[in-house]
């Protein structure tokens, strides 16, 4: 069996007729891994399985070498930020964090809570009741709770939800540091540009299936043959559009003044043929700009590609 801190081996999970996860296998290693998927893709189910809150219908889950469902001791090395609220409003931030640290068997729970609250930037608010906290502050209390016992594995379900831009930047930085310290961190998100800033490795889940895995760049490469849109600015857009269509490297063109927008399923061929065709026709390429090269677009393409294969 693998020694990776988290191992999913042929894991499926269904609720009645709903398949939340379908035959998923991967390992998590130290550093930050992003788990990407739209609402309902199976992210929270994955985290629940790793936290031992639910059992797989099939397959095995191991966290720090243990079955998290059968061995609650796993929580001594595991910190979880669930997407649910679950905070007692009548406790202060300090009491909230201290309580869980004690439950996790931390001897100096007070000192651990103080350090964790400081880490997430809640020192000044530590003795205020959670009831008056903003969504962003409550998220930070949950993060401090997850950190207080210094776990080797952290599972964070959409941890940036409800944060303002400054808080997001701070938390992206904090999560990166947690990974750099050698912890195994899994961050779920539906916002690719955000998770891309934290995670060195991405797992993309669509309809409960793992559809792509790798670095953000690697995932883009996987999508080389997906349909792409390219905007071209030239001195005779109509002529160039005709040449590209005749050459067969694009399947649609749209003209707007000197701007030409083309659709292609052969990005590499277009990149090779475009300068040749322009040169032969004596046309000047002012600007060539791919549209939608961000991960959001790649993700949308993966999603529609996987839809037919879904449940
Ligand atoms: N306890 C449950 N009972 C029935 N169906 C469930 C249960 N938990 C999850 N599901 C279903 O399993 C699928 C995956 O849900 P999950 O919450 O894991 O997705 P998600 O990617 O976390 O999405 P979200 O961000 O919206 O929570 C969904 O179709 C959901 O409706």
Automatic annotation (TrEMBL):
<dbReference type="InterPro" id="IPR003593">
    <property type="entry name" value="AAA+_ATPase"/>
</dbReference>
<dbReference type="Pfam" id="PF00005">
    <property type="entry name" value="ABC_tran"/>
</dbReference>
<dbReference type="GO" id="GO:0005524">
    <property type="term" value="F:ATP binding"/>
</dbReference>
<keyword id="KW-0547">Nucleotide-binding</keyword>
<dbReference type="InterPro" id="IPR017871">
    <property type="entry name" value="ABC_transporter-like_CS"/>
</dbReference>
<feature type="domain" description="ABC transporter">
    <location>
        <begin position="6"/>
        <end position="232"/>
    </location>
</feature>
<comment type="similarity">
    <text>Belongs to the ABC transporter superfamily.</text>
</comment>
<keyword id="KW-0067">ATP-binding</keyword>
<keyword id="KW-0813">Transport</keyword>
<protein>
    <submittedName>
        <fullName>ABC transporter ATP-binding protein</fullName>
    </submittedName>
</protein>
<dbReference type="InterPro" id="IPR003439">
    <property type="entry name" value="ABC_transporter-like_ATP-bd"/>
</dbReference>
<dbReference type="InterPro" id="IPR027417">
    <property type="entry name" value="P-loop_NTPase"/>
</dbReference>
